[in-house]
Structures are given as C-alpha cells and as structure tokens.
Amino acid sequence: MFNWQYAVNYNLTKSLRFNMTASNNNIVRNYFEEDGNPRSDIDKTLELWDGFFDLGEPNRHSQQIQLNYELPFAKIPALDFINAQYSYTSNFDWQRGGDALAEVAQEALGDPNARINTVQNANTHALTASLTMQKFYDLIGLKKREAPTAQRGGGSRANILNQGQGDEEKVKPKTSGLFNTVVDVVTMVKRLNINYNENSGTVLPGYTQSIGFIGTTGPTLGFVLGSQSDVRFEAARNGWLTAFPDFNEQFIRRTNKQLNITATAQPTKDITIDLVADRQYSSSIQENYDLEALLDNKTGLQNQLGSFSISTMMIGTAFGKSDEFDSATFEQFKENRITIANRLVSDRGETPGTLDEDGFPQRYGKTQQEVLLPAFFAAYTGQDVNRVNLDVFRQIPIPNWNIKYTGLMQNKWFKKKFKRFSLSHGYRASYSINSFQTNLEKEQLRNDGLPLVDSENQDVLPDLILNNVVLTDQFNPLVRLDFEMQNSVSVLAEVRTDRALSLSFDNNLMTEINGKEYTVGLGYRIKDVQFVTNIGGNKTRLKGDLNLKADVSLRDNITIIRNLDINNNQITSGQNLLSIKFGADYALSKQLNVLFFYDHNFSQFAVSTAFPQTTVNAGFTLRYNFGN
Questions:
Q1: DSSP string, 349-393
Q2: Mean pLDDT for all residues in the chain
Q3: Is residue 270 over pLDDT 80?
Q4: Which helix (H) or strand (E) holds 339?
Q5: Residue 55 lies in a domain
C-alpha cells in the first residue's frame, strides 16, 4: 500500500472559511510477473530496493471541501437581531473497480486496459439562523411604558390649579397597564431558530478513467465539487463509460431535505410556550445502466423510492367519538371522496364521463389513491374538503406546542402552601408516508403509448405508489399538574391521549389506534431518619433522608380496523393496563444507597383470545459510588 493525506485550511475573510481534506490509497503491484495475464506469479528476483519508490496504482480517492460563511447581518443595524451561518460541503469519491470484473470486461471488449470504476459525489447545504426577537422589538419601538409618578399638590390652591392634571394622572397608570399588556402579547415570541439541511448525492458506476497523484477533475470539475448536474451524457460521448454489455450496476441519485423551526413565546413571565415545526423528505432515484440510451440523449426506466413526514394539526377531530360501533370522522372521510373526485376532474380539465353506481366520475372511483388521500387528510385534520390541498407532499409544517404555567405561585396563599406549582400541556401531530415509489406499471404504459389506467377498474394510475399514509397526534400531556407542598408532599397528576390512523391503499382498510392514560403520583421526603446498625461489631448511627414515591397509572388502548368497501368495523387488539409502582430509597452513607421497589402490572385484553396477565416485580437494590 501507498497511502497519503493532505489538508488545506484557509480563512478567506473573517466570515468565510475554506477547508479541504483528501486521502489517497494506492496498491503497489510491482512484485508480480509482467507477462502473466492475470498477473498472479510473484517475481522472486526482486531485491529489497527494487521499485521501492513505485507509487502503485490508484485504489481509492476521497476528498471533502467545506465552506463556512457567517452571514453579515451583524453589519446591518436593522438586521443585527439575526445570527445566521451557511455552510456548503462537497464530497467526492473515486473507487477502483474489482479485478474479477475487469478481467471479464477485458476479455469481452478485447481491451487489456479496460477497467470499470465507480465515482460518486454529494453536497450538503446547511443554513442555521437564530433570531433574538427582543432586539427586533426594541428596534421598531415596541417597549413598555413606565407608570407615571403622581405629584402631590402643595395646598388647596395647588390642588385646585392642578385638578385637571391630577385627573389625568389617575387615568395614565390604567392606560399604561393596558398598553403594556398589548405589548406583552405582540412581543411574546422571544426566540426563533431555523435549521435547514439539504443533502444530495450521485453514484455513477461504469466510469473507466483513472485519477492523478492528488486527485482529478473528471468527469467534470462541477461533479468533483458536488454539483448534481447529470454528467452521464457528456461522459458517454467522451467514451468514459464502459461498453461492457453485461454491466448492470445502477445509477443512483439521493436527496434528503430537513427543516426544523423552533420558537419560544412568553405572553407573560409565568407562561412559557415552546413551538416546534418540522418537515422531512427523503428520496432515492435508481436507474439501470444503459450506455446506448445515454448516447442517444435518453434515460432508462427510473424507480424512485422515499419517505416523507411533516408536522400538522388534527386537534379539530381529537375529541370526537370513535369506537367500534360509530365514528363520525370516518363517515366524513367516506363522504369526502365524491367531492375530491369531482375536484380532480375539474382541476385537470377532464369530463366526468359515465358515472359509476356510486356516483363517482369515470376513472376516479371511490378507492382511487388520489381520491382517498385528500379525503382522508381533510376528514381527520378537520379541513374543508373543498379547499384541502390535493398534493401528496405538504409544503408548510404546522407548529405543535408545549405550554407551562407557573403563575399561581404569585398568589400569597399558594406561596404559603406550596414550594412549587405548575400546569403543563403539550400537543404533537404528524402526517407521514412511510414509503413511496414510482409506479413502474404507469411508466411502462407511457413508454408503450397505452392509456394510463388500471386494467381492472379503469381508474387513473397515480405517478407514485403509496403503501400507506399515517396521521398521528397526541396530547403529551393533555393536562399535567405538578406541585410540592411545604410539608414535602409532592403530587403529580396527568392525562395523556394518543391516536394513530393508518390508511392502507393495498386493501382499502384504515387502522385506528386510540389510547388514554391516567397517572397519579405521590411522593414524600422524610428528613433526617436515623438508623442504628451493629455491623461487624461496630455500632453506627446512620442519618439521612428517606424518599417515598408511589405511582398509579391506568392505560386504555384499542385498535380498530375500518373497511372502506363494506360497513364493517372490527377490534383486533387492545388492552386495559393497570400499573402500580412504589419505591423507597435511603442514603446509608455518601457512597452507599439502598432502594426498595415494588412494581405491579395487570393487563386485560380487548379480544377474547388473550388471557389477563399479572406481573409483579419487587426487590432491593444496593448502589455504591466509588467516586468522591
């Protein structure tokens, strides 16, 4: 082996930094006989220093270039509340092809120098921005007013002269209080963070060119620097792609996009609201190697695979009744389909044609994928079916939240009775496509010039096949009460709910999972509990706090499968789970701690084929800390 690495780091400006690293790996083969084909016989006449400085043949080359730029918002007075960084990273990799494949290709092409290598690249765009909103509010003049100080009159005459002024002073504090409340609401967003990351990459197999000592600029300089322009046509015209007819590795292009937005809002100092919105998209396009098509400026059959997820809002239907007998939201879903079908026909400038027995227009039946998806999304997010987006991928993420309120501790009675007292609430919801892929049947029909419809039901074939779409939401928690009293009694009580809705396009079934959980926790700390031990004949008095904690939780979850074709709902799983946990810990010394625990779980299943189960786990734990 002959390996070497090199790096270049340079600050182009105070805000722009350039970093480059590269590594090279060569294989030295001068110990083989020159005449052998393949060269498998070792040349035993070589001395120690013969060919000692032979650099060998390139085996792999990898390089990475990174540009980091501090965006100059701080130089602009009106925008100095923004702190943002942008970075661009490019990766390039050249991998030498295997000897076995080279031998087969050389024999087939009659070219002793034929070798099939692989080149791949990637680029990453990353943007991070942090907005200090208080600076922005100060910049535009959104500030609280201070209440004016009332002036006392010097006597009866002064009081008479200043009577009007005194009346004005009585009004100003109230006016200032209302103005300050409005300012608190308008300026409640204190911090905003935005992170965007986009990563793209290309794998180009069948590349026949080698590289130089420090790297290469081929197939193009842009490709080496991370450009995602399609270089296959140029490489084919220049003869840089193998003509070996049995070569079947795939050309791959990958894309990943992630957007995350977080914000902290405080309408008052006692209320904190954390907002989160995110979107993720991942895609991979694969295409079989076809040199003849590239020479004709054509591409082969492409297969796209990927996944998608975005934060959304489903609170409008979160509290609707839904059991094995009835679900108003599911009925709304079924009713939405006819509206969506008519919208698709209208938006695409088509004619409804002959209506089927259910009143659906031709080629847009009640189980057609493009009809089901928007109808499903509109029903369970509570949107107007006449205005819901018909696209598979949503663009704008809806923020979810966590809210915490501690304002009751401002009350004198609460301060006297409690050490801490808080109320919490949280909500999360998402729309996800676990996997999607190109509809190869539709692509084949398009290539053959045939109608792009399903041969069985004559519905229009979608461009992408979705296995299933999932909507989830959860109140985590719906409400949470957490306090500790002055007598060291602590109480935690919370209610959680969760819901998952999975629509399968393979069998037109919707799986609905509903769960509720109630938890009550009690804790008590007994200070300075003393124990007398006589271990090893030495009488020792131990003194420490005894912490007692008990939690009781009841969880009820049920899984229902709903059929879109027939009026049939079926419970497939679910259980009532009762959990009781008790723990007591005591510090025998600074290093030694003893813990007693008791866990009792009882579950009763919703289906008759499963028996009730009880699990009890109890014992002691001794923990010794060998540190300070």
A1: T----S--TTSPPTT--TT-HHHHHHHHHHHHHT--TTTS---SS
A2: 89
A3: yes
A4: helix 328-347
A5: yes
Q: What is the 3-state secondary structure (H, E, C) of 387-418?
A: CCCCCCCCCCCCCEEEEEECHHHHCHHHHHHE
Do 177 and 211 belong together in one domain? no
The H or E element that residue 116 is part of is none
| Structural domain ending residue among the three candidates 270, 300, 330 | 300
The single-letter DSSP state of residue 169 is H
Q: Which helix (H) or strand (E) holds 442?
A: helix 440-448
Count of domains forming the chain = 4
How many angstroms separate the CA atoms of 192 and 262, rounded? 6
Report phi then psi at 65, rounded to 5. Answer: -125, 135
Spatial neighbors of 56 by CB under 8 A, at least 6 apart, are 1, 2, 26, 27, 28, 29, 30
Residue 542 in this model has a pLDDT that exceeds 80 = no
Confidence class for position 535, pLDDT limits 50, 70, 90: low
Q: Are residues 211 and 271 in the same domain?
A: yes
Q: Is the pLDDT of residue 536 over 70?
A: no
Give the separation between CA 547 and CA 492, rounded to whole angstroms. Answer: 15
Both 491 and 584 in one domain: the answer is no
**Torsion angle in degrees (nearest 10) through CA of 281, 287, 292, 295:** 10
| pLDDT tens-digit map of 444-471 | 888 888 999 988 888 999 999 998 999 9
Domain of residue 276 covers 2-133+190-215+228-300
446 and 490 assigned to the same domain: yes
351 in the same domain as 396: yes
282: left (phi over 0), alpha (psi -120 to 50) or beta: beta
Whether residue 376 contacts residue 469, with contact meaning beta carbons closer than 8 Å, is answered with yes
Q: Which of 573, 396, 554, 421 is nearest to 485 (CA)?
A: 421
Residues 232 and 357 in one domain: no
Is residue 585 located within the same domain as residue 621?
yes
Residues 58, 91: one domain?
yes
Residue 100 included in any domain: yes
Write the pLDDT tens digit of every residue in 152-186: 444 444 444 444 444 544 445 555 678 888 888 88
